[in-house]
Design a protein that fits this description.
Layout lengths: L1 H13 L13 E3 L6 E2 L1 H9 L3 E6 L4 H17 L3 E9 L3 H8 L5 H7 L2 H4 L8 H9 L4 E5 L2 H10 L23 H15 L5 H28 L4 E7 L10 H8 L6 E6 L16 E4 L4
Parallel strand pairs: 3-6, 3-7, 4-5, 4-6, 7-8
Antiparallel strand pairs: 1-2, 1-8
Helix pairs in contact: 1-9, 4-5, 8-10, 9-10, 10-11
C-alpha cells in the first residue's frame, strides 16, 4: 500500500494520475520525516538562504499556484535577484519568454508563441499571476522543460533514436544519468501500476530514460543559469515527482555545481494527506499544507 501511495504522488508530475483534495484556509508547514510544525516566516527565512528553492505542485490544484506566488513575492522582498524557472515552458521557447519580460510581447502572444495549450494544457490563469509578477519586476523566467516530441520519442524508442538536431535542447548523453537505484525503483513502481505488470524490461528502460532526460534537462537549465548569475536565487516551479526525495532535479543540479557552497530547499505543496513517506529519508525539506482531510 505504501509503495502505491508514493508512486501515485510521484506520478502527479508525469501527468499519469491527477489528485485533487478539498481546500481549507489553515496554513501549516512541516518536515516530512519528523513532522514538527513551523511558523511560515521561519520557513521563508530558510528559503531566502537557498540558492535554489523548489516549489513542488500538483499541476491541477489552483491553491498550489497561489502559494507559489505568495512565496515568490516574499522571497523577492528579501532579495530582488530572483529568477523563476518553470516546467510549464519548453526550452526552445526561451526567446519568447525573454521578449514577454522585456514587454515586447503581450500575454496572449506569449501563450500562443510558446504553444502553451498543446504543450502544457493546464489553465493559463494558474500561472499567469506569476508571469505578470515577473514581468512587472523584470525577473528572468527560465523555460526548463524538454520539448514534448523529444520525451515522447525517447519513451517510444530510447535516447539512441534522437538525431543530432533533436539533441540541441537536451544535455549531452554523457550527462543523462540513470544509475540511481532508489529513483529507478520509484519509477518502476509507477510503471508497473500504469501497465499492470504487462510492460517489458525494454519498455521500462525507455520510460525511465524519458523521465531522467526530463529531470536532467531542467537541472541543466538551473545549473547553467546559476553559473552565469551566481548572485541570483532560482525558484523552480515543478511537479512534485521531480523533487521528491531529491531524486529528480536537485541531485542533478548538485552534480553539476558541486555541493560545497550550494544550498537547495524543496517544498511539497499540499501532497495527499494519506501519503506515507519513507522513514529513512526526508521526502522534502518542508511540506506546506493549506488544507486538511
Amino acid at each position: 500500500m505504501r509503495k502505491r501511495q508514493i508512486a501515485r504522488l510521484c506520478a502527479l508530475s508525469l501527468g499519469i494520475i491527477l489528485f485533487c483534495t478539498q481546500m481549507a484556509s489553515a496554513q501549516r508547514l512541516s518536515s516530512p520525516r519528523q513532522l514538527p510544525t513551523y511558523n511560515p516566516q521561519t520557513v521563508l527565512q530558510q528559503l531566502t538562504q537557498a540558492n535554489v528553492v523548489y516549489l513542488g505542485e500538483t499541476h491541477n490544484n489552483p491553491e498550489d499556484h497561489l502559494i507559489q506566488l505568495q512565496i515568490i513575492e516574499e522571497l523577492h522582498r528579501q532579495n530582488p535577484n530572483i529568477a523563476i524557472a518553470m516546467e510549464m515552458f519548453q526550452r526552445p521557447f526561451q526567446f519568447q519568454l525573454d521578449r514577454y519580460i522585456a514587454n515586447d510581447l503581450t500575454e496572449l502572444q506569449l501563450r500562443d508563441r510558446t504553444d502553451y495549450k498543446d504543450r502544457w494544457g493546464y489553465p493559463w490563469e494558474y500561472y499567469a499571476p506569476i508571469l505578470r509578477f515577473a514581468k512587472a519586476n523584470r525577473l528572468p523566467v527560465l523555460a526548463m522543460n524538454t520539448p514534448t516530441e523529444i520525451t515522447r520519442k525517447v519513451a517510444r524508442n530510447g535516447l539512441e533514436s534522437l538525431s543530432q538536431s533533436e539533441q540541441q535542447d537536451i544535455p549531452p548523453f554523457s550527462e543523462i544519468r540513470t544509475d540511481n537505484p532508489a529513483y529507478r525503483q520509484l519509477m518502476l513502481d509507477i510503471y508497473q501500476q500504469m501497465h499492470q505488470g504487462l510492460g517489458g524490461n525494454n519498455s521500462f528502460e525507455r520510460f525511465f530514460q524519458a523521465q531522467v532526460l526530463w529531470d536532467e534537462t531542467m537541472a541543466e537549465v538551473i545549473a547553467k543559469f546559476l553559473q552565469a548569475n551566481p548572485d541570483f536565487q532560482v525558484v523552480a516551479i515543478v511537479g512534485q515527482g521531480h523533487i521528491i526525495y531529491g531524486h529528480g532535479i536537485p541531485t542533478r543540479v548538485a552534480r553539476r555545481l558541486g555541493t560545497a557552497n550550494l544550498v537547495q530547499r524543496t517544498v511539497l505543496l499540499n501532497p495527499p494527506a494519506n501519503a506515507q513517506f519513507k522513514t529513512d529519508r526526508s521526502a522534502a525539506d518542508f511540506i506546506w499544507r493549506t488544507r486538511f482531510e
